[in-house]
Specification:
two-stranded antiparallel sheet; three-stranded antiparallel β-sheet; alpha+beta; single chain; about 230 residues; about 40% helix
Length: about 230
């Protein structure tokens, strides 16, 4: 028996049932779209309530009765300063991971914000789309090590900027068709990433304005559309 949670109209609703982690589910285009829609919807409601999840990962996304639900709110809290990494390795916000890797212990705390949840969701979607013969532990899926956030950033930036015809080294690792769905999201998040011009990792909050959030919602609806 697994407990899963969803936020609906600023209320936390709990239900029990036999649920499966997406780490145990084979890739399909339909499931990629369901994960993108389900988790993006949950994140939007969490952020509208003034909270952040802090721990997007394969183990915290469950499928119950063919519906996707975000799970594990043990780290959830208000956006704000943190003095150490939070979340699951390989699915850390690459902005947060780069900051703690490149700064000393005397550096100011890092401001974890809603943007970091979206970066973590991006890694979840990329990892789910990576080719594999069988369902394996998610730590083996991403084409960069968990302690190399700058490599992850460069990988994603190149992928987001690449054309459909020329592809990229990341695209060759992905399931057929998934690159077309992922690329607009990757490009949007990388374009908003504050270190995109080669600046030093920043601890500052990345503000997502109402217009930006509306744009992000439309991007998910277009890129991960499915059904009749």
């Amino acid at each position: 028996m697994r407990i899963a949670f969803c936020l609906q109209k600023s209320r936390v609703l709990a239900f029990a049932g036999v649920a499966t982690s997406i780490n145990e589910i084979q890739y399909s285009d339909l499931m990629l779209c369901k994960i993108a829609h389900g988790v993006a919807s949950a994140l939007s409601q969490i952020h509208e309530a003034g909270l952040v999840h802090h721990d997007l990962s394969f183990g915290n996304i469950l499928v119950l009765h063919d519906e996707v639900h975000l799970n594990d709110f043990g780290e959830m809290g208000t956006p704000g300063l943190i003095s150490a990494l939070v979340g699951t390795p390989r699915f850390y916000s690459i902005r947060m991971a780069a900051y703690f890797k490149e700064t000393s212990s005397e550096a100011p705390p890092f401001h974890y914000c809603a943007f970091d949840d979206w970066l973590a969701l991006l890694l979840v979607l990329v990892a789910f789309s990576c080719k594999r013969d069988t369902v394996v532990n998610a730590t083996h899926l991403l084409p960069w090590p968990s302690d190399e956030p700058n490599n992850a950033y460069l990988f994603l930036e190149a992928f987001g900027a690449s054309s459909r015809t020329h592809g990229s080294s990341l695209e060759s690792r992905l399931q057929p068709g998934s690159a077309v769905r992922l690329r607009p999201l990757v490009a949007w998040l990388m374009e908003k990433h504050p270190e995109r011009e080669g600046n030093a990792p920043s601890s500052a909050e990345v503000e997502l304005t109402p217009n930006m959030l509306a744009e992000l919602k439309q991007l998910f609806m277009r890129s991960f559309s499915y059904g009749p």
